[in-house]
Write a structure and sequence with these properties.
The structure is a single chain. The longest helix is centred in the middle third of the chain and has 24 residues, at 378-401. Helix content is 24%, strand content 26%. The radius of gyration is 24 Å and the shape is globular. Helix 6 packs parallel to helix 7 and helix 9 (480-490) runs parallel beside helix 10. It is α+β, with helices and mostly antiparallel strands. The termini are far apart.
Length: 654
């Protein structure tokens, strides 16, 4: 056994054969942004040759390497008695990953992710497309443990973790490539562990104040957007931004994505675009758009020819330009800008500055960046791992160079280890409009919790979910109920934003289909608005200390082991407990209350903590509790009760 110490304390022990090299092969299967990775062969023990040093920020850094021809390393270390492992980026199925084996490889999360029969049907149509319990847009080789340790695997590559699954007292990490740099922090307080690792991994900066209003997502053209905006304002919805995903025009035939990825406004769909943006801003409404690092492959797109001639596109293992097909349809071909190429990086950044920032947009959804092809060879594997961070960096630099720091909202789907140094905010991706724990509302909560542990401090979701499916065999569409319950949950996330979903269809419910939807949406928008002061306070903590706004209960009750089981509830900051309704046709929710006493703002009933309670979940009154005696308790209760008694909130969903 070998040991490694920090400030005189043994921080890590390893078996004598802790470092091994692979005599075999690495494997990658991919389809439309989904990656399945693995390896075959045998492991050969090598002399560890591990060097360690203490850093100025209080970390123990270990470095190890083998010959440059090595395809993969396997590093193993011992688990402390009773130790549990949490984090690993945005994980949508599990808060506690102890006893699991999984990859860290960014990609499409899939459709269904194990929910049946949906996943089986999706895979039957397109193999790999359903994803699984570990597929995610934003994995990170980073975790905190219940024994006060934080592990940050710095090397940008693909990883395969076995967290006590094969051997309960050991963690084994397969590292694609020939070297590894590992940073370890220690602290008995999990919030301080987050503070320590985010000093290195990065902290998100404060958003513009208007970002905390209602962000209205609408597709379909200027006239439709203006009509829905007007109706929202009639119902008293505090809209501060209009998000038009299809500002570039629709390439598809379903009324939704895919879009024309040429990054110029569609003046037919949205005439006089720049002046319209100015007019909206004068009315207190910012205009948001959409962008990704793809260029549509089509004769009508000059940027594609330019990028092709200048060698700006990513290439596959054969050296050919990688051409993908959006949604698996060859008529929606695209190429991906190679962000590891400095000239290509600068080219795309200038396009964003010229066509988007100077063109009238005040922000956008920054999609994708997890599609970079790789085949196991290190340069390509490193590029795949780094590109989500480079995408965040490119967007942030564009804003800074345009002189618009603090004025723009950008929210990302993908992330890698150091993305938090550059990102503004995140959204949790493309859930199905269901309640389930695999790929629905419940899974989105889990993703925000795990991402928060890893520094993704400002996160939110598409209200109502995104991925609808209508096939002869199976139908998954947004219902009024799932929209309502998702809306209630989203009130207590930093950003409150709607999305029309994967496609337009009367069977896919939108709140603007009827007056009761407008009323309910306005009611929830005003509730979110009532908490802006709290969001801004927590945002300041995030910028200064890296604390997430949406928090796992464990962070404030680390001595209560039951909190490790709670992955579908969250704390907003330290003092507001949120228990989303994750079951259809339910008027109650079974909630775990952490230690302390908790007050219902709607009834003023007081509950004792450290137990489960059945909370009432009447539509329009989200099941939330305030920590009695908490730092923000009095103001939270006052804000919530003032909203509840406001005259305009007396009529809502019926």
């Amino acid at each position: 056994m070998r040991s490694y110490s920090l400030q005189g304390r043994v921080l890590l022990t390893t078996p004598n054969d802790c470092l091994q090299t692979l005599d075999g092969a690495l494997s990658v299967r991919s389809r439309n942004g989904r990656f399945q990775v693995g390896h075959t062969g045998r492991w050969i023990s090598v002399a560890p040759g591990i060097t360690g040093r203490e850093t100025a920020d209080g970390a123990l850094v270990l470095q190890m390497a083998a010959s440059e021809t090595t395809k993969a390393l396997r590093f193993s270390f011992d688990v402390l008695p009773g130790e549990r492992f949490l984090g690993f980026g945005e994980q949508f199925s599990h808060l506690d990953l102890t006893g699991h084996a999984f990859p860290i490889c960014a990609g499409e999360q899939g459709i269904g992710r194990g929910a049946q029969p949906l996943s089986a049907l999706v895979n039957l149509s397109a193999p790999l497309a359903a994803g699984d319990a570990y597929s995610t847009y934003a994995p990170m080789p980073l975790c905190i443990t219940t024994k006060g340790r934080c592990f940050v695997f710095e090397t940008p590559t693909v990883y395969e973790f076995d967290v006590g699954k094969t051997a309960p007292n050991r963690v084994s990490v397969v590292v694609w490539g020939h070297r590894l740099r590992l940073r370890i922090y220690t602290d008995d307080n999990p919030l301080r562990l987050i503070e320590k690792h985010t000093q290195f991994t990065g902290r998100l900066s404060p958003l513009p104040a208007w970002a905390y209003g209602t962000l209205l997502g609408v597709r379909g053209g200027r006239d439709k957007a203006e009509a829905i905006l007007s109706r929202c304002q009639e119902f008293g919805t505090p809209v501060t931004a209009l998000w038009i995903e299809d500002w570039v025009g629709r390439r598809g035939e379903n009324g939704g994505p895919p879009l024309w990825w040429h990054w110029t406004p569609d003046e037919t769909l949205y005439p006089d675009f720049k002046n319209w943006s100015r007019t909206l801003a004068a009315r207190g409404v910012r205009l948001l758009g959409y962008v990704n690092p793809f260029i549509a492959r089509d004769d009508s797109v000059p940027l594609y020819d330019e990028g092709l001639k200048k060698g700006y596109f990513a290439r596959d293992g054969n050296g050919d330009v990688f051409v993908g097909n959006a949604w698996g349809n060859p008529q929606y071909g695209y190429a991906m800008v190679d962000l590891t190429n400095p000239d290509a990086y600068a080219w795309l950044k200038e396009i964003i500055k010229r066509n988007m920032l100077a063109g009238g947009l005040h922000g956008w959804m920054a999609d994708y960046a997890e599609y970079v092809p790789f085949d196991g060879r290190f340069p390509a594997t490193a590029a795949h791992a780094k590109t989500p961070m480079l995408w965040a960096k490119l967007n942030r630099e564009a804003v800074h160079e345009a002189g618009m720091d603090g004025q723009v909202l950008i929210f990302h789907r993908s992330a890698s280890l150091l993305s938090n140094r550059h990102a503004c905010a995140y959204w949790a991706g493309d859930q199905t409009p269901t309640f389930d724990r695999y790929d629905g509302l419940a899974s989105a909560v889990t993703g925000m919790l795990t991402g928060g542990l890893c520094g993704m401090s400002i996160n939110h979701t598409d209200i109502g979910g995104f991925t609808s499916l209508i096939t002869p065999m199976f139908k998954v569409v947004r219902t009024p109920e799932i929209f309502m319950r998702w809306c209630e949950m989203s009130v207590f996330t930093p950003l409150f934003r709607t999305h029309d979903g994967a496609f337009d269809d009367k069977r896919n419910y939108q709140f603007y289909h009827d007056d009761r939807g407008y009323r309910f949406f306005a009611r929830m928008g005003r509730l979110h608005e009532a908490l802006i002061w709290y969001f801004r306070q927590l945002e300041s903590e995030a910028a200064q200390r890296g604390h997430p706004l949406v928090r796992a209960l464990y962070l404030h009750a680390p001595n209560d082991p039951e909190t490790l089981r709670i992955k579908h509830q969250f704390l907003l900051g330290p003092d507001l407990l949120v228990s989303p309704v994750c079951l259809a046709r339910s008027l109650t929710v079974r909630a775990y209350l952490p230690p302390g006493r908790w007050v219902c703002p709607w009834t003023e009933r007081v509950y004792e903590g450290r137990r489960y309670e059945r909370l009432t979940a009447v539509p329009g009154f989200p099941p939330v509790l305030v920590r009695e005696g908490g730092q923000y308790a009095d103001r939270l209760l006052a804000s919530l009760q003032r909203w509840d008694t406001a005259e305009e909130n007396n009529v809502f969903w019926s």
